[in-house]
TrEMBL record:
Single GO molecular function: inositol monophosphate 1-phosphatase activity
UniProt key word Hydrolase: yes
Organism: Corynebacterium renale
Family annotation (Pfam families): Inositol_P (PF00459)
InterPro entries listed in its UniProt record: Inositol_monoP_metal-BS, Inositol_monophosphatase-like
Residues that, per the record, bind Mg(2+) 2: D90
Name assigned to this protein: Myo-inositol-1(Or 4)-monophosphatase
Amino acid sequence: MSTLSNPLNHSALLATATDAASYAAHMIMDHFGLAHGYEKAPGAVVTDVDVEIERRLRRRLHTATGFAVMGEETGGELGAEPTWVIDPIDGTSNFITGNPDCAVLISLVVDNRVEVAVTVIPQRGLRYTAVRGGQLVRNGVPQTGTRRCDPTVEVVGLSAINQLAFDLAQTTLRPRVTGSVGVNLAYAAQGIFSAAVSTSPHVWDNAAGALLCESAGLEVRALDGQEWTPRSGPLVAGTHEAVETVLDTMRAQHH
């Protein structure tokens, strides 16, 4: 059972999540560019490393807190109780091929709100953390006044090449495809990207990065323009101007 009091002890929960993410990051580095993938569903690749990391994270997080766990590889669901949400390797194809844009994503969802978030990009030596109501923290340093992009170079991060990428290229935004939703959202939070778009419906792809961006003072919205929640599915996060450009472009696609 959990030893954490109610209301949530955000500091203790963040420490638990950060420790778990660091453990997973070491496993990623040990197998980076060496693992063999197999298709778990059409267009979706997984490795035994993904599955093993998730298995170990589930045990560590549940043992430490008593909370339920939901993960990409072995399932679970969001309920009324606090739930850890994990993506053991976001950007598995990158991990397999030796591309450093892959990440461990851990978040805690309570009452349809993200309360704690950790994103670690091991091969780039980056760790981003946030708790609800707090600042974005990068490698242990609070990011007060997070750098925003040069207005002459407004970049939007995407995880796949699709029609939206081509349409956004006709706007003031410059699309960049990383192959990882979590990396895109972390880069938006830091100010490397002006915005990031996730077309993934899965909470494990979106939740951690959504809180990072919110903590950096960015807008986080569902693709219908409404406020994003963990049950909303896809999202766009970024500066107000960049988010509006993305949403306007998507609206034009449907006319």
